[in-house]
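User: Sequence in, structure out. Go.
Assistant: Echoing your sequence, followed by the structure tokens.
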Amino acid sequence: MSARRAARLAEVVAKVSVPVLAVGLAGYVLVEPPKQLARAAVHHQPTAVPLESTALVCPGPETVGVRGADADHPATPPSPAQVAAAAPPDTVRPAGVGGAGGRVVIGRGADAVAVDRSGTAALLAQASTSAAASVPVTAVEAAAPGLVAEQLTVTRRGDERGAASATCLAASDDQWLVGGGTDVGRRGRLVLANPHDASADVTVDVLSTQGAVARTPGSTVAVPPHSRVVLLLDALAAKATSPVVHVRSTGGSVTAVLSDTYLDGTTPRGIDDVVAAMPPARQALVPGVRVDGRAVLRLAVPGDAEAVVQVSALGRSGATDLPDGGVVRVPAGTTRDVSLDSLPKGDYGLKVVSDVPVVAGAWVERRAGGIGEFAWSATSGPVTSLAGVARADVSGGRTDIVLTAPRQDAHVDVVTVAADGTATTREVDVAAGTTQAVQVSGSVWVRPKQGSGEVVAARFTQYDDAAGPLVTTGPLRQVALTRVPTDLAPADR
């Protein structure tokens, strides 16, 4: 590395010590606001009110409904997708964001399932995997603040053997999906869902180790209102190595999930869903990376300048050394897979610091003989008020909440809510620069205590199986609790 590039990276790393934190969709960035803006905020601070409604979208059955194909015909049909949703109990909500009443609704029309808000997850098992439709999750009144939902599919035999889960998110007009592949036997299905009343025009771009992939006729597609479109990754980017998918929409926003399935001849090698990562940033953290075999960190540089990146693996006892000090170079407009095979078995949060904005995600594999299984982890931002996950009821599994404190000691409450609505709170301390896992059951909420340092969270789930474990993971994202009414927006004076 040149002295100039080393100095640039050192400058980026040094910024971590700046004491003021700003949190946004781009992850966490440390900044010092101008004093005049800080003074203006005191005089023009708008008043936030609790959300009255929230809408999330789950992808629905990922392996059917491919555009341009009559049908997908796996040797064994996949298990039905299960969707769980939950609203946080009043005991974990901030003051003033509570109240009685409210409903959570999963699905649409006659197939919808509705429950009153009680902190209990609502569950929907889709009756038919041939129904090529996304699954909306909505909440109103007191159930709206903090709504979370998750889709889970567990298949124990056949071509689609594995566990796949997707955090159900709100629609967006700009998303990055870090994962998938186009190897022989690899099948990537990009599920685009439009929850709105108007059509959305979507453009899909793919980066690879060779650079930006030329667009195909299928790279631009219209997604009708309240519908979804499923595209094949190898049709968008044939033979692209280490792909990273960028989804942008105009005229309306969509949700995007990439289903990654691997079949080695007739031997299943795993399946998982890739959800949207945090947007490009100079600092990122990939939580919930449980290493027990092969593991890879995938990086992508969307801009026109090469990135010099330093990767730190924060485990239970602190940072673990990586080859070459964890410093790697990624050319502009390309992707790179960084091997993590040298890491000892354990849970990690991968801290990424770069001199130019990057996106990142991680992949871990389990192998038992020839049969395999894998899980994709997406970047996530710090939990500053509340994050949660709704858990589907699938027997034989163990779920851990994996917490990483990237810089300072973190102190959080981990609140689990059983099916009968009973809440149990566990206080967890995570030392600076370490990662800790907490076994949980039911729906789970993570709430930092006053004075806590940053904490980034993920969920890792493993199911026992005679042919080898089934694994899947997902980030715990900060939930939306309030909104600022447009008529209360600050005015210039």
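User: And one key feature?
Assistant: Residues 3-488 form one domain.
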